[in-house]
Amino acid sequence: MTTRSGRHFLQIPGPTNVPDRVLRAIAQPTIDHRGPEFAELALDLLPRLKPVFGTSGPVIVYPSSGTGAWEAALVNTLSPGDRVLAFETGHFATLWHEMAERLGLEVDFVPGDWRRGADPEAVAERLAADTAHSIAAVMVVHNETSTGVTSRVPDIRAAIDEAGHPALLLVDTISSLGSIDYRHEEWGVDVTVSCSQKGLMLPPGLGFNAVSEKALAASAAARLPRSYWDWAPILDANRQGFFPYTPATNLLYGLREALLMLEEEGLPNVFARHARHAAATRAAVNGWGLEVLCADEREYSGSLTAVLLGEEHDADKVRRIILDRFDMSLGTGLGRLAGRVFRIGHLGHFNDLTLAGTLAGVHMGLQLAGVDIDPAGLGAALDLLGSE
Ligand code: PLP
Question: Which regions in the chain score pLDDT beneath 50?
Fold first, then answer.
């Protein structure tokens, strides 16, 4: 095995780099999850989560990955045979749609080219045509991690409202929460799905559902089988600062520290930092003469950029060279994008020099892989980072 010095650059779009502060918080002795010290932690932590989601309502925390939180959103609000509307924005939207079908839901899956977000006009059309109101929910992935495209959730909300349709709005914010502006309550979202290992700067292991009053009311009537994911016993136990089963105690210590870090920086500053790093990354990609996968500038992602290579190049070969030579991990192309794109994660615990190092590694790796790039691309990004 090759000996490495210095820190690995983990520039996949999640899991992201965990700050030392958060690692130290996680490294405390595990406590009794039914004792008073744990209740104190949970009662402090649960309210602190709300502003990150932009909600005054409850946020449910699971010891799970994001996929678990997807399932929780569906089984708590829907019944067997319910129709749901979903959009083929990329790999994760496709997986969520497949999960919904496996759970016995009937999915209207609007096809897409994996370069654009969910189309608000298609939402308006589909819902206007559903005069019987048989569509029970609209499922949207806010930030498609496979493509670097951010769907315009407020426009989707407006389309639902214009159609006067009662469908629930379920949104996956797994790679946008704590990185890209998001407002559960203001945007009228009913269930916001998220998890720990991206903008929240934690290791994998926590899943989240932020839920509206309307979602809670729907859960009282929903008939998909649920047990582990059931919101009701969790909300009940949370009132006293407990959980119905063993929570991920040490990750919750880390979560409190990560939330303090976000509070200290201030969410608007966090979002502006991500937007600026995304703009600098696009300056490099365009300057190199390569193509950003996202086809609509209104939908550029603040947390990652997917770079499309010509047919003659294998994006995974570029990634492999960068890993071997510069000890940096970049995101692979997923699903139908395998070999065609690589993804640069610029989210979470991240600053100007982390981005400069990341882009320098990509620049050198592309050259080593024989991709014909204009070397001025890197300078364009540095100019942007170095400007006032
Ligand atoms: N949704 C999106 C947008 C994701 O990026 C991911 C994972 O990267 C998932 C869902 C699945 O989450 P997990 O792998 O934590 O189960």
Answer: none
